[in-house]
Specification:
The protein is of the alpha+beta class. The chain is built from 24 helices and 25 strands. The strands form 6 sheets. Strands 12, 13, 15, 16, 17 and 20 form a 6-stranded mixed sheet that branches. α6 (about 355-375) packs parallel to α13, α7 runs antiparallel to α15 (about 555-580) and α8 (about 400-430) packs across α11. The longest helix has about 30 residues, at about 400-430.
Length: about 775
Amino acid sequence: MPDKPAANFVDKVTRAGAAQWMSSGRAYLQRCGPVGLCKRPIRLCCHSSSKPGDSAMTIWRSPIRLAFCGTLAAAMFWLLIPFAATAEVSVAHKVTAVEARLISAEDAVSAEAQTLSAGLDLNLADGWKTYWRSPGEVGIPPQIDWSGSTNVAGVDFLWPAPERFTAFGIENFGYHDEVVFPLQITLKDPGEPVELRANVKLLTCSAVCVPQDFDLALSLPQGNSIDQVSANRIGAFLARVPAEGGAAGVTAATSHINDDFTGLTIEIAATTAFKTPDVFPEIGDGNTLGKPDIRLGASGRTLWAEFPILAYMADTDAPPRVTVTDGPDHALTVTPDRATTAPTPPFSIDRVVPGIDQVIWIAIIAFLGGLILNAMPCVLPVLSIKLSSALKSEGRGNAQVRAGFLAAAAGVMVFMWALAAVLFALQKIGVAVGWGLQFQSPTFLVLMLLILGLFTANLFGLFEFSLPAALTTRLMKAGGTAGYGADFATGFFGAVMATPCSAPFLGTAIAFALAGRVIDIAVVFTFLGLGLASPYLLVAIVPNVVRFVPKPGRWMIALKAGLGILLMGTAAWLFYVLLGVAGSRAALTVASLGAVMLFIAASPWVPRSLRWPFGLALAALAVAAAPFLATPAPPDAQAGKIAWVTFDRGDIARRVSRGEVVFVDVTADWCLTCKANKALVLERDPVLSALNSSGVTPMLADWTRPDDAITRFLETNNRYGIPFNAVYGPSAPEGIILSEILSTQDVLAALHAARPGAAQATLIEDDVKVSRFGNTLEQSAD
């Protein structure tokens, strides 16, 4: 490693590049004398007009970079001696995406030279990119094998500061247009000729990604010859390698990862103010981050950034290493200290408040969503409850009919307001919220299953509901309001059972509410409830419609049995959902306890006074046992008509980069609208044939159980409920989002619009010629 005076000398290679240093090389020599005789450190400015005396930080390079600069500076010294030479560069590798070559600051190896300054020079075609050492969620960094070289002891690969680019909603880091990776080559035998042999593997991406695998060679004989053009080019990109240690000008740096490994917060204090910084953390292989929230404080000298963690693997966790870029001339890398609490942001960002016209419009959308929800597949369990309300209205006066249906509407509204309050509270404490998420809870499912089982048994006449005598007496003394209480419960339970469905307009309204203020949540859920309760409200306004119900007779017995069959089907569906959410052990235990409970309720051998205590005890045991006995989700088995692959957000980008179209279906066992979409559209021709065709990958995201990756994917697309379907492809890298209710025409049109164009297909045929690196890419993708 060069000694300190030599380091002082080589630091005259400024961030402006080697060319400017060479132009003033003799002046520096006149002031400092021969190499190693400078008496003070040379200050390195972050501007292209660097000169002694400028106000800037003193730079002490890392050992590798010092050695590299020493070699390059020695090359600059030889530029001061007249000579004639021919530039030495490797034969270029040229394809559509990139032109690559090896370059060297020296055209020959001088006597006693221990190191050489070289570079991997990449010129990328318009629109093409390649990757940094930490490529982001997808991508592969360049890899070079030097094993075929002679007289090479080692090669240090330096990384210029990257830039950020986004595709498929995923953050990636790398380079476009051109980049030179500076190479510090250490010789086995100083002063002897060198044969550089590099096998280069890199990934280039545009609308598609093409893996490159090629060889470069460069021979350097003995001599004292310098390539000024290559030296300038290497020096320019060497200046973009982030400074480290004291050179970074950082006075303090801290980082914090939250307890559930979903967020990274960073704070960096520096001696000079940041202007327009970007931040690139590295937290270990396989751990990926989303788009940052970056804020500046202390007149720009404090940088605060918060990142969502998209994928975290504890076994590859590493102390965060953070690279900050601030324009083309300022970059630094620092390893922050880990903090026990997250750094506080320098300021808060006020939420944009929607105007009254937007609130009115979203209220109308919410009402329409609730209204349409009455006709969704979830109408199966709700229909029987609403019909039972109409049957009970026979023989009542208009006032009683109106009051009963208003009570049912009130039940709907109370549930909606309660749901809004719970979602708001959960949102404030950082819990993921969304429409229908209660169906991911085994406790909720067991409770609903037991209630439906009792209703079904009652409709089949196995037993009659009989409240305790004391409670019945109190209700009678209160004015006989038990009927209205039942109407209220009818509306409430009907609203509960409607939540596993989605409808047009519903997703938009829910997204607006859960991303907004408390008043936005209140407005949306109020009008959603009014839309869902509109059938009850219609009867309450025009109570005479109940007169069209036929007079009581034998038909009511058949109707009652039919309603019982509907509810039994709903109970069977809930049991199927419970199997998916909690596993077979918990579901069978609940079924056994439920059967015993029904036997006690219907058995003539059990005294009536004991039925309620025994029934409630068994119900409580079933509710408690379900989450306790729940088993982990089994490996995905995607058998069926469609060749599904398991959801992987990063795999979307990898597949699209290879020219594939990806159809993403976020579904769940409890989502009845999802089941209808699957049965009526996805598993029928011509959509079925299109999804199973070559070049199309159907990807299934099963949200039956809580899944943070799927939740974050939905939130990225501003969705808080399902179904959610999107199509990604080379012509639609950001995705085409489909309506909640699928149609054959919409799905086929999206698949066609996302396919690669003819020009992209030609690129793939021309450039994908080597399979060896392609296999490596496949392994990484898998």
